[in-house]
């Protein structure tokens, strides 16, 4: 008999969320992958999310279209703001206002309808310490709110927001995913990948990815632009 | 000099959120009204929200299209589930999974970009006690989460989720709105209003509205279907 533990797994197409999906699957969850088309510049990520969902045997993969461009305020959704080519201090300009809250709210809605209690998100507080909504205290409070927000919570369900990568370095994430058979060649992390999914090699996200493969001693399968 | 206190006000087109908007405006906020087209059956509400935003001088009114129909699980978004014609015990079938969490997440994102710290939502825990996401403890925890989620929160901003109606009876809401000049004839509360915005007169929402006008001693301007 197969497991009926259901998890909604947020899947961006990058290597972190691919590893989170592999971990959820390894823990016996039936995985329902959820991605968002939110007008992000790096649309190559969405194509990557489809490849990753298939390769890691998600039972279902939904892509929700959200219009966040009207909100603006981030280099990822506002074309008037450039993606910086150097790492920044404080809250990065690539931070999208309330993005993880919106993503987790949708995951919560879907989880409720699926009668699941488990949501996986590949946030990381080590490399992304500048993002308010990647911190453990944020996740803990979202979980508390989720238990009050829903039918399941009221009826005693213990909704859990799983963040298995939150304290890992990029190298640890890569080693973990590698051990679980994640094909990182399918993933795209770059904030400004080209239409073929090739990475710029210079943005924050490329920097951490490149360093991570080096530190993990795993061959980097990333395709870079010239 | 005009006030620059900015509030995002969730506006459904019903009488509760119209009163919440009137209260925010009365408190000196520059009001940015936010409505959602989420495939709800009662689309007449959205037209009402436009009339209400204009009549109560919101400086801006945005309608965000969300697809919640794929989530299903509610009589308001799933056409296979009927809107009940009698009041129900427990969590009503008109409850939409995680709806207020999704709505508040968008309000939070907009508020952050506007550099505001105030969000108004017309939830009510008296008549809608069956909805998990209308309870004071839910709102308090959302607020706590919001302060951790955002740039403003990290930088010391005190994001506040205002719920001025949460403990009011429908009659008190009506009296409050009436005193502030809300034109209730512009509002639509019915879960299954017809294309002209005329109310069914039998759903939960119609029941509470009708009783409210009676108890408030205010003439009921609602147009009913035959």
What's the gist of this structure?
Chain A is α/β, with parallel strands linked by helices. Chain A has helices at 15-26, 44-55, 99-114, 136-149, 151-154, 170-179, 204-216; strands spanning 6-10, 30-37, 60-65, 118-120, 160-162.
Write the layout of secondary structure elements.
Two copies of one chain form a homodimer.
Chain A: E1 6-10, H1 15-26, E2 30-37, H2 44-55, E3 60-65, H3 99-114, E4 118-120, H4 136-149, H5 151-154, E5 160-162, H6 170-179, H7 204-216
Parallel strand pairs in A: 1-2, 1-4, 2-3, 4-5
Number of strands of chain A: 5
Average pLDDT of chain A, rounded to a whole number, is: 87
Regions with little confidence, pLDDT below 50 for 5+ residues of chain A: none
The CATH architecture of chain A is: 3-Layer(aba) Sandwich
- Over all CA atoms, what is the radius of gyration of chain A? 17 Å
The CATH H-level superfamily of chain A is HUPs
Beta-strand proportion of chain A: 5-15%
The span between the termini of chain A is 50 Å
Structural class of chain A: alpha/beta
Order of helices and strands of chain A: EHEHEHEHHEHH
Largest interface: A-B, 43 and 43 residues
Strand order of the largest sheet of chain A: 3-2-1-4-5
CATH class of chain A: Alpha Beta
């Amino acid at each position: 008999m197969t497991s009926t533990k259901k998890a909604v797994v947020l899947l961006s197409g990058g290597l972190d969320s691919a590893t989170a999906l592999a971990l959820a699957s390894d823990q016996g969850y039936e995985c329902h992958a959820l991605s968002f088309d939110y007008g992000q510049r790096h649309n190559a990520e969405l194509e990557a999310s489809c490849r990753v969902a298939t390769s890691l045997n998600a039972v279902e993969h939904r892509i929700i279209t959200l219009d966040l461009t009207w909100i603006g305020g981030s280099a990822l959704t506002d074309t008037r703001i450039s993606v910086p080519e150097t790492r920044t201090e404080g809250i990065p300009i690539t931070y999208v206002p309330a993005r993880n809250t919106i993503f987790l709210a949708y995951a919560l809605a879907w989880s409720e309808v699926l009668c699941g209690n488990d949501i996986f998100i590949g946030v990381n507080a080590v490399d992304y310490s500048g993002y308010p909504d990647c911190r453990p205290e944020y996740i803990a409070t979202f979980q508390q709110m989720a238990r009050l927000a829903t039918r399941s919570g009221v009826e005693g369900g213990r909704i859990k927001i799983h963040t298995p990568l939150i304290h890992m370095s990029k190298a640890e994430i890569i080693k973990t995913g590698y051990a679980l058979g994640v094909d990182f060649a399918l993933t795209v992390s770059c904030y400004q990948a080209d239409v073929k999914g090739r990475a710029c090699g210079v943005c924050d996200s490329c920097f951490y990815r490149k360093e991570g493969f080096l530190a993990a001693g795993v061959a980097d399968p990333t395709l870079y632009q010239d």
